[in-house]
Amino acid sequence: MNASYRDPHDMTIECPACDGHIEARHSEPMSDTMRRLYFYCPDCGFRAPASLEILYSLSPSASPRDGLDLPIVRADPLRGTINSRTAKRAGL
Description:
mainly beta
């Protein structure tokens, strides 16, 4: 495999201290749309918290929860014969 290839489904995060891969060890809810994650680097021992927030929805939920006011921001439609899992959006 080409060394410059990067799997688009790879969700790893590089350690800011040593460039190794940090792991999310646990998380806790902060709100309906935000979680605090606690990361650890097995290579150098770096530890840090981070926040993950759902900012908006790309499509309406089939079963929306009462009281959750999450804006819907529709994505531009794909054009032509495109594999939406692997192709870039048309025009970008």
